[in-house]
Specification:
Shape: extended
CATH class of one domain: Mainly Beta
Main location: membrane
Radius of gyration: 41 Å
CATH superfamily of one domain: membrane protein fhac: a member of the omp85/tpsb transporter family
Helix content: 10-25%
Strand order of the largest sheet: 19-20-21-22-23-24-25-26-27-28-29-32-33-34-35-36
Keywords: Cell outer membrane, Membrane, Signal, Transmembrane
Organism: hydrothermal vent metagenome
Protein name: Outer membrane protein assembly factor YaeT
InterPro entries: Bac_surfAg_D15, BamA/TamA_POTRA, D15-like, POTRA
């Protein structure tokens, strides 16, 4: 109405206008008075109540008044001195409502009070702040009765009850169940706990009565009805373990039995026993201290495949896909083989750049018992090309260069996006031992699909901006794949703590090959697991995309979300790409993001009707992805102490200082660099200082190496050493250094060239001294140049089971001695037998070595054989040319060995070996004095002592010479911490 009256004031009469002005003035005066009254002083307030009582003027406190004091009311058993430290409001300071609220929260947090309220009382000298509290019951005593095997302090830590804590009946009753669970976890399955005091409101003491009972251990696990698998194999799949000597380990936990049954069923399902049924029976001894668990198994029929069907494959025919198939029609169903087949199919498509191709394997059960069809449904997807690769090292204060991770990868911008190569790059980055491995902190790979709108359009000088994103190509052009220049995958970058740089090959104007080199790496097999209702679900789903990242992760970056789309890649979501500066395309060039040059019509835009300069068709823009690598820095420095003993070198100790992320060119600039650990670190180089003192052998060495020197594929190594060895016939000392340069040409083939400079001293020769030894007594300078080639196709560097390795080298000495030297060595491995699940491998290995050196070779460079590492059955350096009882070594050596290795236990901790070593060492190229030994031994795997097993071998010679020194037993033991 007021608004209407004002707008229409021109129509009113003068008297009416005067009345309205008076009324408006009165209204403004009343409003001012009411607002003044609303601004009341600090009123008395009660925390915890929803209503506010009306206060009188005498009760109001001005916020600027200082508090007269603080008073506690309602406390009976808790003294004021105990309460006051939790109150931060102070007398003689102005009242602060926010601080009073914090004080109330602090008092509630003690657990001593069930109610806390605050109020102000006006006194003559000022306001008094009063906290009115209602005490909660307090525990005066906590007692555990009957516990003999577990101490009170462990029980108290489990219940959380202690003298002076708040008394709560529900907490006391809950403590009973917690104590029983705690006892059960410790193996006291029959333990019972009763609350005899503390369950009433007037109680102030909490007392538990405990009947511990015996500690129950599993002494035996039996299986009945299992015909296909041995008991020892089935036990490997279970969490429940038997006790050792009835006193150690093997605690009984009934909660693990259902989990064991599920694991056993999954194991049977993986090999085609889809109808398996398993029940358990638990039997206790009379004293209930020991238990026997029996699993009754009905294996049922093992299913065979009637046919294997491929669906959705257009690029490859079903015949092509089945050529290397491990699982064929008529075979028994085997998850391990099926997984390998799925991985092989995925690899085929991956090599074509079909990054997101999927293969889903589904067994279809038939009405005929024991028969099923295997359906492999393929989604071929599209071809993707890597646009750029970025590295973001996670951490607050990182010091590692981004080029360290980039150099280790096998992929480059412009390559086809092969998931196998992406996974291999991830494994190589983890293999640097610079970044964390596995888990959330492990190396994460994010793959971002670049949207069409984010792909930069070509820019032409003087051309219309609306030029269509299409690339003309003549219909008559031959279907020849373009060969373009290769962008090197090595990058020179700055540290992550500095300004981010633009790397070579990382901008959006990429010039990279359309072709991808073919590699034959074995894809990791994905485990096949299914629930108990496998047959009923009637479906097996296998995801074959590499497990690059298991957690969904996001990353805040500067690139707008509209520019790139994050693609889930086997439960992975990649972060968005970091934008790179655009480059200006000069003159009339027409190139796309991959540097592909196409003919351009400078006058007319392309159209479906063609143009004046040629008959063209549209070419689809390539599908691009960005790859973001996110590693987390790990601890790279180690100080290790070790001890070892073997039959060749006696007892040796080991002290090693090792840094795997060294930077030779980053000395400390400030004290902070040393304290923060930034000095001498960050370039991925390796620095190692090693001291190995021993009873017969001592070695001291300093070594520096860079696997990607100057961000190239070349490696560089520098080392200096001192070596001392007490041989039976003389004492030898070497002081020198070595420079080596290497190159990894392929994942399997590498070359290495080295220069060796040594000062050698031979002393304490045996008397009488043969001429060969006398000629070398004293000091000599040895210098050689050596070239080594290695081709390694083994599946593992430790304990390989498949593949082979070939090594050959040529060395030329100059200086005090001048002679050529040649050696070649080969080892191959076969798995001749294994369990149905692929474990328990029986491995046959065959190895041979041949070496020759020139006539001017000094005695300390001759070839010797014998001992654990070269020729078992003989003593260290126990065979070869002999002059007057002194082993002088030979100019020619030919050695060989064949070994059969097999597991002695289902868990493969113990292996047995049967072997034969053969060969000879001669002064000339000949096999006149050929020796042969046969023997057997044991290998013991101890994870805490490193990847190399303990070895104990017995060997006897079948053919030998009278001058040979025999040894029946040889061994190796080592430990590093």
């Amino acid at each position: 109405m007021a608004y209407f009256s004002i707008q229409n004031s021109r129509l009113a009469r003068p008297q009416t206008q005067t009345v309205m002005r008076v009324m408006c003035g009165i209204a403004v005066f009343i409003f001012t008075i009411s607002m003044t009254a609303a601004q009341s002083p600090f009123e008395e307030r009660h925390a915890g109540n929803n209503h506010h009582e009306r206060k009188t003027a005498s009760q109001r406190v001005n916020v600027v008044q200082n508090l007269l004091g603080i008073k506690i009311e309602g406390n009976v058993s808790i003294p004021r001195s105990t309460i006051m430290p939790y109150i931060k409001s102070h007398p003689q300071r102005p009242a602060n409502p926010a601080q009073v609220k914090k004080d109330i929260s602090a008092l509630y947090g003690t657990g001593w009070f069930s109610s806390v309220r605050s109020t102000y009382r006006m006194k003559e000298k000022g306001p008094l702040l009063v906290f009115q509290v209602v005490e909660s019951p307090i525990v005066k005593k906590v007692e555990y009765r009957g516990n003999k095997k577990i101490k009170d302090k462990h029980l108290a830590a489990n219940t959380g009850l202690k003298r002076g804590s708040a008394f709560n009946i529900h907490s006391n009753k809950d403590a009973v169940s917690r104590l029983e669970k705690f006892y059960h976890e410790k193996g006291f399955f029959f333990a019972k706990v009763k609350l005899i005091k503390g369950d009433r409101n007037d109680d102030r003491e909490v007392i538990f009565r405990i009947n511990e009972g015996p500690k129950v251990r599993v002494t035996k696990i039996k299986f009945t009805g299992n015909k296909f698998f041995r008991d020892s194999v089935l036990k490997l799949k279970m969490k429940t373990k038997t006790a050792i000597l009835w006193k150690f380990s093997g605690l009984y936990n009934p909660e693990t039995i259902p989990e064991d049954i599920v694991a056993l069923k999954e194991y049977y399902h993986s090999l085609g026993f889809f109808d398996v049924r398993i029940k358990q029976k638990v039997s206790f001894t009379k004293g209930k201290g020991y238990v026997t668990i029996e699993y009754k198994i009905k294996e049922g029929i093992r299913y065979k495949l009637r046919k294997v069907e491929y669906i959705g494959n257009n690029i490859f025919s079903s015949k092509q896909l089945s050529e290397e198939s491990k699982l064929r029609a008529g075979d028994y169903f085997d998850t391990r083989k099926m997984t390998k087949d799925v991985a092989a199919i995925k690899d085929r498509y991956g090599k074509l750049g079909r990054l997101f191709a999927t293969v889903q394997a589904t067994p279809r059960f038939l009405e005929t018992p024991g028969q099923a069809d295997l359906e492999l449904r393929i989604n071929e997807d599209k071809v993707y090309i890597i646009r750029k690769i970025d590295v973001n090292i996670r951490g607050d204060q990182t010091h590692t260069k981004r080029s360290v991770a980039l150099n280790a990868g096998t992929i480059s911008p412009g390559d086809l996006a092969d998931p196998k190569e992406i996974m291999r790059s991830k494994a190589r980055i983890e293999g640097l031992q610079i970044f964390e491995r596995g888990g959330e902190k492990g190396v994460q790979i994010h793959i971002n699909r670049v949207e069409k709108s984010a792909q930069k359009k070509p820019v032409f000088r003087g051309q219309n901006k609306s030029f269509p994103r299409s690339y003309p190509r003549r219909k008559t052009a031959p279907p020849v794949r373009r060969k373009l220049r290769k962008v090197s995958p090595r990058y020179r970058t700055q540290r992550t703590t500095r300004r981010r740089s633009v790397f070579r090959g990382q901008s959006e104007e990429l010039a990279n090959p359309f072709e991808k080199k073919q590699n034959s790496y074995r894809a990791p097999a994905n485990p096949f697991r299914e629930n108990n209702s496998f047959r009923e679900n009637n479906r097996v789903s296998t995801r074959t995309a590499p497990s690059i990242q298991r957690r969904l992760r996001t990353s805040s970056r500067t690139t707008p979300r509209s520019s790139s789309q994050t693609i889930p890649y086997h439960s992975a979501v990649g972060s968005e790409a970091v934008p790179q500066p655009y480059q200006t395309i000069q003159q009339q060039s027409h190139t796309d993001d991959l540097g592909l040059s196409h003919p351009v019509n400078p006058l007319f835009e392309t159209s479906p009707q063609g143009d004046l300069y040629g008959d063209t068709v549209r070419q689809e823009y390539p599908n691009l992805v960005d790859i973001i690598v996110e590693p987390t820095e790990a601890r790279t420095g180690r100080l290790m102490f070790g001890v070892g003993v073997n039959s060749d070198a006696g007892v040796v100790g080991s002290i090693v200082l090792d840094e795997r992320n060294f930077d030779l060119f980053r000395p400390p600039r400030t004290i902070g660099d040393l304290l923060d650990g930034n000095a001498w670190r960050g370039a991925g180089q390796r620095f190692r200082i090693e001291a190995v003192p021993g009873s017969q052998l001592s070695r001291y060495m300093v070594n520096w190496s860079d696997p990607y020197v100057f961000d190239t594929n070349y490696s560089l190594g520098l080392s200096g050493f001192f070596f001392s060895r007490f041989y039976d016939d003389w004492t030898e000392q070497r002081l020198g250094g070595r420079i080596s340069i290497g190159r990894q040409f392929t994942p399997f083939f590498s070359l290495n060239a080295s220069l060796r400079l040594e000062q050698v001293e031979v002393s304490n020769p045996r008397v009488p001294t043969p001429p060969e030894l006398a000629a070398s007594v004293g000091e000599a300078f040895l210098s050689t140049i050596k070239l080594n080639a290695t081709y390694d196709q083994r599946d593992s560097s430790f304990l390989p089971s498949e593949g082979y390795i070939l090594r050959a080298g040529y060395e030329q000495a100059f200086g005090d001695f001048s002679y050529p030297r040649f050696n070649a060595k080969a080892n191959t491995y076969w798995t001749v037998r294994s369990r149905h699940d692929g474990a328990g491998k029986h491995i046959v290995s065959l190895g041979g070595e041949i070496a020759w050196t020139g006539d001017d070779t000094p005695i300390f460079e001759n070839y010797f054989a014998g001992g654990f590492s070269t020729f078992r059955g003989f003593d260290f350096r126990g065979i070869g040319p002999d002059t007057g009882g002194v082993k002088t070594g030979g100019k020619f050596m030919a050695l060989g060995s064949v070994e059969y290795r097999f597991p002695l236990m289902a868990n493969e901790m113990f292996h047995g070996v049967v072997f034969s070593d053969f060969g000879t060492v001669e002064n000339d190229v000949a096999l006149d004095n050929f020796r042969v030994t046969v023997g057997a031994g044991v290998r013991i795997m101890v994870p805490a002592m490193g990847p190399v097993p303990l070895a104990f071998d017995f060997a006897v010679p079948l053919t030998s010479l009278s001058s040979d020194e025999r040894r029946l037993f040889s061994f190796y033991m080592g430990f590093t911490k």
